[in-house]
Specification:
Layout: H1 3-35, H2 38-56, H3 62-86, H4 88-93, H5 109-130, H6 133-157, H7 161-181, H8 186-209, H9 211-217, H10 222-226, H11 228-252, H12 257-279, H13 283-310
Helix pairs in contact: 2-3, 2-7, 2-13, 3-5, 3-6, 3-7, 5-6, 6-7, 7-8, 8-11, 8-13, 11-12, 12-13
Amino acid sequence: MTVESERLVAARSVRPADAAPRRSVRRSLGAYVMLTKPRIILLLLVTTVPAMILARRSMPSVWLIVATLLGGTLAAGGANAINQYLDRDIDEIMRRTRRRPLPSGVIEPQAALVFGVTLGAAAFVWLTFLVNLLSAALAIAAMAFYVFVYTMWLKRWSPQNIVIGGAAGAMPALVGWAAVTGRVGLPAVVLFAIVFLWTPPHFWALALRYERDYAAAGVPMLPVVAGTRATTRQIVGYTVVLVIVSLVLYPLGRMGLIYLSAAVVLGGLFIGGGIRLHRSPTPARRIALFRFSIVYLALLFGAVALDALVHIRP
């Protein structure tokens, strides 16, 4: 055998051993990222920055925005990791979640728990020293509420789980306001209420899509307990209240025409989608309303930020 042939044989024998660890490390890192539920975190952060801009009535410093978002990401990521640790038995049953890191065996349960707690501790330290104590306390309160009240109690025992549990997802608006002002103002409470009221129609539309999964896992989501008709009726009712509360921000937050127009138009579309779903709850309309609800929240809070920066009065 020539020297060149020996080198080729040696290279081929080495490559699989080298490639396997690289794939394993990459897969593990990706799994830890998935533990944090990055898409949910992104949606939560959409409500943080507009609250900061409204509180200041101008653009806060880039450093303050980055510090607040990173702290909020750590807290939310930690809560989501602990949530997956606690819900790993349910996630194994549901088709939508059985490929998550714990049911698929990529990450050990104990490692997920340690990861979540570590992220939460890091969030508190980061926000306390680089933003302020109130923002840190609110972020950890949201984390604790999501873990102990929603995940460990309400989710498995009450069809009102997502209604009350929605308070955790609404906290980033308060965190953003507190990061700028060091307190919680009345407009921030209205922003909190908007996200709180938005959560049930948003999540129930998805729960309708995966009703059988929740039933198989024994989770008393409203569609499982009350049926499709009652759930779509509740969706319409909550959406109407949501739109009314969103209009309350116009006088209380001293908003202008940009926000008012967005609240009216987006609210009308949301109510219309809910009514269409109630009349004909097809699978396509269920997922369509779920997707529109995400667009609604992003555009409404985008209008909050734009209005605070431009502020066109009637």
